[in-house]
Design the sequence.
């Protein structure tokens, strides 16, 4: 992953009033911080930040901030977004280094159609994203699993995941992340059996019901 450059300027003031003045200038407030770093108050163009985050890596995109005559590497740690307009209002940028691992979340997806699902099972994906630990430039855009071979009552655990070199999922190796459940198949079978059983219990048209003996 190549870092995306983001221009920023140092701001001296903080608070709601100065933040409104920044936005009137077409900028948003931000903060840059991290291990061994003094927090630095920033002003950035929201359009530049939005464009940076629209790539395949999303918030895991490594950003090279140019500020005060120097360059710093960072990841987006937090975004404040307007609930209606979805405009970015504030950003937290966390200092990273190429030789220091980070812990972040990446999307978790499946591809293919499970053999067990074809036979009536139900695919259960336990997580929408997974926590991974890696050097920032090695963080994958997403983790994808081909579920095609999975039969009913089979699954995938953390140790089964095929990950890029230098990337690990921060869950126990035996933790299940995908499972093909038989419950959906059982429900379908019960739904098929119920009408047949009801039909068998209903007398045919024109057939008198049995009269109890006296």
Sequence:
């Amino acid at each position: 992953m190549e870092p995306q450059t983001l221009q920023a300027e140092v701001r001296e003031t903080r608070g709601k009033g100065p933040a409104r003045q920044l936005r009137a200038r077409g900028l948003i407030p931000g903060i840059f911080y991290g291990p061994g770093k003094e927090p630095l108050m920033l002003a950035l163009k929201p359009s530049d930040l939005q464009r940076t985050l629209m790539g395949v890596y999303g918030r895991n995109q490594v950003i090279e901030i140019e500020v005060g005559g120097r360059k710093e590497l960072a990841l987006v740690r937090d975004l404040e977004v307007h609930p209606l307009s979805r405009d970015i209002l504030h950003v937290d940028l966390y200092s990273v280094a190429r030789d220091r691992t980070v812990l972040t979340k990446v999307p978790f997806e499946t591809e293919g159609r499970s053999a067990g699902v074809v036979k009536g099972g139900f695919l259960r994906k336990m997580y929408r994203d997974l926590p991974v630990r890696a050097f920032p430039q090695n963080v994958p855009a997403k983790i994808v699993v081909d579920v095609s071979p999975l039969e009913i009552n089979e699954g995938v655990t953390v140790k089964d995941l095929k990950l890029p070199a230098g990337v690990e999922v921060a869950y126990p190796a035996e933790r299940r992340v995908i499972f093909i459940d038989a419950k959906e198949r059982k429900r379908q079978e019960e739904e098929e059996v119920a009408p047949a059983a009801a039909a068998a219990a209903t007398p045919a048209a024109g057939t008198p019901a049995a009269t109890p003996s006296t």
Summary: The longest strand covers residues 70-81. Residues 55 and 156 are 28 Å apart (CA to CA). The helical segments are 16-24, 46-53, 115-118, 183-201. The chain has two domains: 4-96, 103-191.
